[in-house]
């Protein structure tokens, strides 16, 4: 009888072990399915962001202004796109001007002092910039942060601070403030 009891206990133990493994496998499948749903959701969000960025970049592919070595400009893109852009950017007296100059003037108005500073620094700035190329960044992975792809650095200029405060004061609208804080935090994290 002892052998039968041992066989019964061994069979029950094996069945218990199989049941435990089945329960563990079911929980694991559930966790993997949940992770898969999260990954698919994040992928869908990333694909939407990528499509948005591709759309924004495609808008710039229609019209480009090339600078030639002799300092002249050359328009790239369809004449229709240039005509639409010129209509959008030009003032009344600008309609007879070269569309490339109209675009450059609009860029100067939009970028203002920052663009003027880069132009004024000219060769000295270029020498400094090329000297930087001789050195590798100490932590190149930081340069992959989206913050470093922005056209303008994230700053706290007085005009922006006043605009954020004006929205709070006029309409109790804290959204610009919260957006600014979010961008500053992202900048801080990217700069490590």
Structure report:
The chain is mostly helical and 192 residues long. Among the domains are: 1-62; 138-192. Helix content is 71%, strand content 5%. It contains 6 helices and 2 strands; from the N terminus they run αββααααα. The chain has helices spanning 2-62, 79-89, 99-111, 113-133, 158-171, 175-191; strands at residues 63-67, 73-77. It has a two-stranded antiparallel sheet with strand order 1-2. The relative contact order is 0.04.
Task: Tell me what portion of residues adopts beta-strand conformation.
Answer: 5-15%
Shape: elongated
Q: Secondary-structure element order, as H and E? A: HEEHHHHH
Count of alpha and pi helical runs? 6
The level of helicity is over 70%
What is the first-to-last residue Cα distance?
A: 72 Å
Radius of gyration computed on alpha carbons: 30 Å
Output the keywords.
2 strands, two-stranded antiparallel ribbon, 71% helix, 192 residues, mainly alpha, 6 helices
Please provide a brief summary of the model:
The chain is mostly helical and about 190 residues long. Helices cover about 70% and strands about 5% of the residues.
Topology, element by element:
Elements: H1 2-62, E1 63-67, E2 73-77, H2 79-89, H3 99-111, H4 113-133, H5 158-171, H6 175-191
Antiparallel strand pairs: 1-2
Helix pairs in contact: 2-3, 5-6
